[in-house]
Amino acid sequence: MASAATKHFIRQRFTAMVQVPLTVWLVISVITMIGATRVEMLEWVSTWWVAALLVTWFLSVPLHMSIGIGDIIDDYIHKKGSRSALSLLNSIYALAIGVVGVFAVIAIAFIA
Amino acid sequence: MVELTLPRNSKISGEGKKYEGKAGDSAEMRTVNIYRYDPDSGQNPRVDSYKIDVNGISMVLDLLIKVKSDLDPTVAFRRSCREGVCGSCAFNINGKNGLACTTGLDELGSGDINIYPLPHMPVVKDLVTDLTKFYEQHAAIQPFLQSDDVPEEEHLQSPEDREHLDGLYECILCASCSTACPSYWWNGNKKAEGQEDQEYLGPAALLQAHRWIKDSRDDKTDERLAQLDDTFKLYRCHTIMNCVQVCPKGLNPAAAISEIKRMLVERSGQKVT
Fold first, then answer.
1. What is d(CA B243, CA B239) in angstroms, rounded to the nearest whole number?
2. Is B190 in contact with A75 (Cβ distance < 8 A)?
3. Is residue B197 domain-shared with residue B111, that is, in the same domain?
């Protein structure tokens, strides 16, 4: 059974690996969509596999971000109370970004 | 929070003293700036300048010895073997940690030579730093053979298994790597904050930990890995690689640390792809 420290390390590496192809795909896709109308963009996001990839991206990025910022907090914040408070804020911030991102994709795919 | 201001009596202030040696016909005069600090004086550190003939001198340690013998006998520094084996004369030379005895003057360009103590360590006097914490961290990884076997003569090892220790056993504990590591600066010594249980062991101790983990004769591999499986002891390494850049023996502590992390992932039953 992995310790919390090793689990943290595995999550960091795993989310990084997931993001490499996803981010390359997203950047290329957005560039190729330059000049597209709003309706065309909504249609693209509504495509089932695009929506699935975007949801994955919005789950992976905030998780990776929170791990990275958590590492910075562990590095530089030495007071245990401040470190716990900032770690909590960091988790809430990442969760909020993830929820908003996933909600936006689902809203476009199923409601718009 | 992290300490953003320097402790009292640690800022370099005031004009340092200037010394000038005799310049003969074939003299090659060069200026050496040396960090000076005497805690008994109660004064802040200063940097003294020594203009000295370097003709016939090839290594920084020889230069320091000449400064001490010809210009200023009060300069304090450690040295012993003068051939890169004992690790005593590790300083920050022109901004890079290394051994004075194996750093040639020809590696330092043609300008002034600046010699400071190892970064972020308490200074005992001048270039002599207090390495107590560094040695404690080395002791913490239990750097000795722990075997369940009690052989009649000695613990045997095949040449192939012995090769696994190459690049690990050569460490001379000069502290160049650990004191070049920003993670070690921030988290290497938290005694003053009462958080000694949340300290980063540093590249040197972790390289040695890996040396014993890889030793085929040692039976405590799992216990050693379990001891290192910690957010602070091991995972403060962010592969900055300063340790690799400065190691005077050409070792790679960052690779050793990565290998420990990989072994911990495997130990946890999951694979890194």
1. 9
2. no
3. no
**B198, B206, B231, B261: best to mutate for the A interface, most A CBs within 10 A:** B231
Secondary structure class of B35 (helix, strand, coil): strand
Residues forming beta bridges with residue B104, ordered by sequence position: B59
A41-73 tens-digit pLDDT: 999 999 999 999 999 999 999 999 999 999 999
Q: What distance in Å separates the CA atoms of residue A49 and residue B231, rounded to the nearest whole number?
A: 37
Mutate to test the interface with B, among A7, A8, A9 (most CBs of B within 10 A): A9
State how far residue B107 is from chain A, nearest Cα, in angstroms. Answer: 34
User: Has residue B161 got a pLDDT over 50?
Assistant: yes
Stretch (H or E) spanning A39? helix A38-46
Name the residue range of residue B85's domain. 18-129
Comparing CB atoms, the residue among B193, B229, B267 nearest residue A5 is B229
Instruction: State the complex-level ipTM.
Output: 0.86
The crossing angle, in degrees rounded to 10, of helices B203-213 and B132-140 is: 20
DSSP secondary structure code for residue A60 in this structure: H
Q: Domain check: are B102 and B183 in the same one?
A: no
pLDDT greater at residue B270 or residue B196: B196
Inter-chain CB proximity B261 and A9 less than 8 Å: yes
The model carries a pTM of: 0.91
* pLDDT tens digits, one per residue of B174-189: 999 999 999 999 999 8
Residue whose C-alpha is closest to residue A2's, from B273, B223, B270, B213: B270
Q: B234 to chain A, minimum CA–CA distance in Å?
A: 9
Return the CATH number at A58. 1.20.1300.10
Q: How far apart (Å, rounded) are the C-alpha atoms in residues B73 and B247?
A: 29
Residues B124 and B139 in one domain: no
